[in-house]
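Weekend entry, working from home. Most of the wet-lab plans are on hold until the incubator is repaired, so I used the time to fold the two sequences that have been sitting in the queue since the last round of cloning. Logging both here for the record. First:
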Amino acid sequence: MFLQRIGSKGIRLGTLFDRAAARHPANFVVLDHDLDIAPRLGRRVTLTELADLVDDFAARLWSVRVRPGDHVVVHKSDGFDISLLACAVARTGAVPVLLSPKLDGATVAELLRRVGRPFLITDQGKLEQHLPAEVFGLSRKVLLASGEYGGATSLASLAGAGRVPAVSMPIDHPTLITHTSGTTGTPKLAVHTGMSFQARYRPQATVVGGAVRRSEPVAIHVSFVHSRMFTAMPISILQGHPLIILRDDDPGTVGELFTQIPPGFIEAHPNTFLRWEVLADDPRGPLANVKYFSSTFDAIHPRTVNTLLKASRRRGRRFAQAYGQSEVGPIAARTYSLGDGADFNGRCVGVPFPGMTGVRVVSRDGAPVSKENPGFIEVRSDGRIVTYLGEHQRWQKQVHDGWWRMGDLGYRTRWGCLHLLDREVDEIPGVQSTLEIEDKLFTRLPELVEVIIIPGPDGRAVPVVCTREDAPLHDMAWKAAVIDLPALADPVQWRLEDLPQTATTKIKRLELARLLAAGPAA
């Protein structure tokens, strides 16, 4: 779209920290963990130090013959150095391929095959405990971010490699490859260019720039391998915000850190915000200074939005929700205030960004699209990926006359607001919207920390529920909560940690349905 293209130079990940440090040399990043590749730096690091670290590791990669156009897979233990290594790889002109630490070894091996003998950056722990031996045959060279392992080269041993100038690649060249959530099977490898990332950056940068003052810290708890990290992080450091990077979403740890360094803006996964509801009652007020909460990735529930807004003491505080997808970036957005209450319509996900993104809803049966007859949601954006690596035909199947089919069902109101009802694969006959039912159950049952409506073996809609501290669900409270809802099977209670999750904490609904059908043994 035209406002995404004007004057675009691309995201330029390889020089990102150089440019941020040139603007704000003394600005800092606060971490809740040590970096595996540079534990000596500690947990409060300046942008100047991070720029030097990226330059250093780009030189180490160059010394083992990583060159422009090569693919470098990063699959290591969780940490912010995943994102830093991606910038270092991009600095050499190579293409970083980021694989979640949560992926199992067999899936990693399959994705290495799809990439085609890339360099692999991993660590001793992954090789000893998770990855199959075949990764050595599937990789051109195995490099270690930490530890030692036979047949692999540690990045630490390459210290002192001569620095090399950053390589500038064309704006339409692949700059990063991430993977999809894998909620419906083996993840797909999404190919982003410098142009597509910059196109995603602009609408989000506009929102953050007008939301909080430059001096206010921005806190981010986002998967380090997700494309969202590579728009959220640049926005913060280029605009001059002190940046708080969280690996752990434990409320106790987060509450302590936010008490010491109160953020003015927080970006996190929906399920992370759900877990942080308990911080609203923390007497230290760790969320008191937040002007904007922001989330994308998945549905956010009205109860969570209202609880977090009540925890802030800022005037004009807002919760911003963006609707998008890994393949296209943010497409539509809306904000909520305390005035919306705890039972607003969470299915309304907002309107497109003018001049930047577009939305249409296509009928499935020729009849007009409505709430009762939802259609396919399709979108336009220059932030769209250019292909799935090794699966271009699969990518083409989702493009219709230049519009990208999201795999979601919904409708638009007469005022243009987009309403999301369900994923196509999650639709249950006789249930208008599983997401709407989940929203209502969250609002009516404060003890719930997760509820997922999935099809049972007999086709009936089954609620899988998780409660705070795994307390038994009160039978009478449940019956009162569902009295006016579509017919549901009896709830099945699980522990939250037993639910199959993606890298961004989304629940794998199809996998959960399979486990439920397989019975207790599974």
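Second, folded right after the first finished:
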Amino acid sequence: MDSLYDSACGAYIYDEDVLDFLVKYDNNLAGEMQILQPDCRTIINSQFLVAYRSALDTSGAPLSTDILFGLGYDRIPKCFGLMDTSALHGIGIGAVQTVPGLSLSGKDVLVGFIDTGIDFANPLFRRADGTCRVTAIWDQTQAAYEAGGQNMSMQSEEIDTRPIFGYGREYPQELLNLAIQTEQPYQIVPSRDTDGHGTFLASVAAGNTYLDGDDIFSGVAPESDIIMVKLKQAKQRLRDFFLIPDGVPCYSEADIILGVKYLINKAMELGKPLVICLGLGTNQGDHNGNLNLELYLDTVVTLPGICVVGSAGNELGTGGHFASLSTINLGNQNGISQPRTRTVRNEMEIYVEDENPGFCTEIWGRAPSLYQIAVYSPTGQRFDQLFPNRDSSGMITYLYEGTTLYAESVVVENNSGDPFILLRFEKPAPGIWRIEVTENYSSFPAGYDAWLPIRQFLGGNTRFSRPDPEVILCAPANARGTITVAGYNHLDNSLYVESSRGYTRKGRIQPDFAAPAVRVAGLLAGGSGTRPLFVRRSGTSVGAALTAGAAALFLEWGIVRGNYYGMNTEVIRQILIRGARTVVDIAYPNPAWGWGVLDISRAFEALRG
């Protein structure tokens, strides 16, 4: 069950009565199995695994929220949402593609995406000889798993479309080439991008050069090979636990991390360097790089031939972050002001304007301080059942509001070591919800931060009444193992109005730089056709796709051409930072722009010395 291409867990993966857990077990397999008691597991490496366990107790009733949380917040997969040819000029691609000594196009480099899928049959993803530039698709969705060849020709049935980690289907290039030679390619390979996000990002990073009269389009690395992981939607029980609205695309951290593992293994199998583009994000976690996905990415940051690129997120203006401004309660003894107690009390307000089915709020403190909360409803009813010095939980249904609040406090969160409080509001009444936080400190007050979910996971125009606009990078953008890309408008050199800002919660400099993210042209998904249709999109995921294409050019120059065999994520990050261009007269680095804006030509100039 632990191999890459075979698993006994297939029966559990799509079962809505089975819970998925993403576990950092650090070689203590027996200990984790004793805690979780799973029905099945899939080993990722010596540090991480995915475990599957029934969502029902012995009586057949669903496991309660407190039981789930008791298994460990760090083990519950987090929910990720989508982070939505002048751009090429803006990143300085011209000289890199045309200078005789470079002439880089991404040849023999893999560009991998973990996203909504790809329109593989589109002409923008075909080589000059008519073959498909998509090397493989791992489609995780149930539909792909069930297809199993029912619409395939006798010739295509001979090609293995094996499950990966026991689920979905892998469609290899041999089958993709066979499909695009027919009039109905999606009957042979029934994998479509119904959202369009993955197709758009793939075209921006790696689409063909396409001429239509005076119009020209090109991806950054038009000769690279593409691999796509089409994510399945998160299970309903995970969505319900985190109160994700119906109909909103939502993806499990466990499926994403397995997608990363698949791409890396595929690159090793093919013997080619790989760029991984992550256009997904979440506000969950400590915002300092300690989600399990982020910790896993940290393990690949130094691997030669691997580069991971992620988007900063689009959370500016949502009012989704609160930072405490602690003031010490001073007393007076003999005319000298001094701390009366080693406590600080601070207050934040969550404003729920319209009807909202529910949301979660995460409060992260800093060790060794201890934290206690009281939550007041709009009519003043108080909840204060949590203890500051030990793990505890509590629940209340506010009488007048009809709102149910579940609260959980963890004194030492497993991955970060910091105090953590989760507040889960079901059917929150409109109005001001007041949260009083008391910090007990040993030497000086450390403060705390709180985050609401990303904008698409949050209904009812819900926001903090006194938000802080910084420290709003969406995971995995806080990971040390990810090149983090903010967004700007390359046409007027202004910052993209929704681009998330850094730094990380404990001050590490991220984002690394900004890339074009406003009305960038890319492919419109919707079928094969004979003429590509283009659309413009904005979002930091677009900037990440442009940067992923740039990384492919550096891997071609460094590894494929033998100029720098040790090139990896960290090396490419530092090269691109050295080439970053300043466009606004402010100090660099800074939380909005990082070290400047992406400029590939300047980066190669820096290499030349």
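Plan for Monday: verify the second prediction. The two ends are 51 Å apart (CA to CA).
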